Task: inverse folding
């Protein structure tokens, strides 16, 4: 099994799926982490990120905020989503393996609701439509 986590420079779960520049990808065997690597995404947008994860044969995604378009793209790729997660990436994966990580697949990034959005958060803005 492979688990991907949206990842930031502080080793924490990055909080905006569509803008993540890195994933930490964990290889799991017998319910234990056997290896991990950093996968660069260049923050390409939700459709490209979903395709990147599908190409890496990811089974499960742990992330912070995620919009409806991304949820749809990941679900179509067969990737199970654990959203609304914060804290250290390694801790989140260990919680998932223990069965204590709460699964959420609903969009939890409210500015994504209408498919077109504009917002300013931490000095960035984004605007796109679902395709």
Result:
């Amino acid at each position: 099994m492979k688990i991907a986590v949206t990842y930031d420079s502080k080793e924490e779960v990055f909080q905006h799926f569509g803008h993540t520049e890195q994933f930490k990808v964990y290889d799991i065997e017998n319910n234990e982490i056997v290896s991990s690597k950093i996968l660069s995404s260049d923050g390409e947008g939700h459709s490209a990120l979903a395709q990147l994860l599908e190409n890496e044969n990811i089974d499960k995604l742990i992330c912070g905020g995620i919009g409806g378009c991304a949820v749809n793209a990941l679900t179509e790729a067969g990737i199970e989503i654990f959203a609304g997660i914060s804290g250290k990436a390694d801790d989140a994966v260990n919680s998932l393996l223990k069965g204590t990580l709460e699964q959420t697949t609903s969009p939890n990034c409210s500015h994504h609701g209408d498919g077109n959005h504009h917002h300013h958060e931490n000095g960035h803005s984004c605007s796109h439509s679902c395709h």
Helices lie at 46-55, 68-76, 89-98.
